[in-house]
Write a structure and sequence with these properties.
This protein is α/β, with parallel strands linked by helices and 445 residues long. 33% of the residues lie in helices and 24% in strands.
């Protein structure tokens, strides 16, 4: 442990990082009557669920589709503090593109059978047979020994089906077909079919997080931005505080009964003083499948939308890297200036462990051109980003999450590396906050 100043102030809980996991944990703990301190190193709240102003546009930092159903862990956290979610619903507005055409998901239901039938080019017999396999797997979740690709290839040799679900997994689950365990895919599918609703924040993700932050602080908790955590103080196997630093206030040490880290499981180990602070069982879990999920993010402006009258989400199954496109300006006019159309596209490497992200990112741009020939010549690119390293798309692949508890007493992880089974992304981060807070409050008399 480095030289630590005397503890300046005590809180019930301290949260390191103001991503969706950290903010939902703060909301839940504050609603339970705790006094919470949130430390965020950047000037912004929300992590991947935020936005930046670029050329008068509200450009997402990652998240597009935000769960908003009453049963969502995100919605629950907002409701606990009576914070409204200013959302535009997108539930059911999904379009899928394969080499032979496009399919618009029916908002009235039947989406899974519909996309299978589309991929099989209306072959009713094959559609019924494969759909029944999916239904059986949703009712009897397979184990995680096989990947979803292995499960699928045992039931169909159709390339369009495989390509469609590759796009689905990469775009909606952040993990490739050959990387996600079969059981986890079907847990996600089951969760998604239970009254799931999602939408886009009308004025940018940052507005959503600022509204939650205001409610948290009105209840007596504190949020310090531009404040980094230098160290998690661990004494006798127990987390007892944090050493923080900011340009304005210098070094400060805060004490707490519980510490929650929203920095990713690997970063938490470093902040806590290294691997020697943790027991072998926890380290084995940390090392079992340590791969992060990188993502490519492209945002750009055009004078005309690439797709007219399209206020939904396009999932690609006809590419190697390009997986997703949305036109936020056609969903909310407050996202960009009048007469200009903001587009957000995402790509993914064909293998999350690849070392050559640059080449695959360039191919994502190339595939964007191929899918919309001649339409990007005058596009103004606002974001070209490869999210990896300490700020990946997700800190763990779907199906390989770590538990929220650690082997250090009173130290918890929250975030997309600790999502509950069957959840991913922002909802997964919020679900981890729900579980961590449940464990913390359970100890209280």
């Amino acid at each position: 442990m480095i030289g630590v100043p005397a503890m300046k102030e005590r809180f019930d809980s301290i949260i390191i990082g103001a991503g969706m996991g950290g903010m939902c944990a703060a909301a839940r703990l504050t609603a339970a009557g705790q006094r919470v301190l949130v430390l965020e190193k950047s000037p912004y709240l929300g992590g991947r669920c935020s936005h930046r102003m670029k050329n008068e546009c509200r450009v997402t930092t990652g998240a597009i589709m935000i769960p908003m159903a009453p049963t969502s862990a995100i919605r629950e956290a907002f409701d606990l503090l009576d914070v409204p979610m200013n959302m535009i619903e997108l539930t059911g507005r999904m379009r899928y593109r394969l080499q032979h055409g496009e399919y618009d998901q029916q908002q009235s239901g039947g989406g899974l059978r519909g996309v299978i039938k589309f991929a099989l080019q209306d072959d009713e017999e094959q559609t019924t047979r494969l759909f029944q396999e999916f239904v059986f797997a949703m009712e009897h979740i397979p184990n995680d020994c096989n990947t979803f690709r292995e499960w699928l290839e045992k039931r169909t040799g159709n390339d369009d089906v495989i390509n469609l679900f590759q796009g689905f997994c990469a775009a909606l689950m952040g993990t490739n077909l050959h990387e996600i365990p079969a059981g986890e895919f079907f847990r996600f599918l089951v969760n998604s079919s239970r009254g799931s609703r999602f939408g886009m924040v009308a004025k940018g993700n940052g507005e959503l997080m600022e509204a939650l932050a205001e409610a948290i602080q009105l209840r007596g908790s504190r949020i310090l931005t531009r404040t980094s955590c230098r160290e998690i103080v661990v004494e006798h196997g127990r987390a007892s505080g944090v050493l923080a630093h900011s340009k304005d206030r210098g070094e400060e040490t805060f004490a707490a009964n519980d510490i929650l880290s929203n920095t990713g499981p690997d970063r938490t180990v470093i902040l806590s003083g290294g691997r020697e602070k943790f027991d072998t069982n926890y380290l084995a879990k940390l090392d079992r499948f340590p791969h992060q999920a990188p993502i490519f993010h492209i945002s750009f402006l055009t004078d005309a939308p690439l797709i007219e009258d399209f206020d939904g989400c396009l999932v690609f199954g006809n590419n190697k890297n390009l997986i997703y496109l949305e036109i936020p300006s056609l969903i909310s006019p407050e996202i960009s200036p009048s007469g200009r159309y903001l587009h957000t596209a995402f790509g993914a490497p064909t293998d999350a462990t690849t070392k050559n992200l640059t080449a695959e990112f360039e191919n994502t741009l190339h595939e964007l051109e191929l899918n919309f020939p001649g339409k990007l010549a005058s596009a103004e690119f606002l974001v070209k980003a490869k999210h990896s390293g300490q700020s990946p798309g997700m800190h763990r692949w779907a199906g390989y999450m770590l538990p929220v508890s650690t082997s250090i007493k009173n130290l918890f992880n929250v975030g997309d590396g600790n999502a509950a089974p069957g959840t991913i992304g922002t909802e997964g981060a919020a679900s981890s906050a729900k579980e961590a807070v449940k464990q913390i409050l359970k100890r209280q008399p």
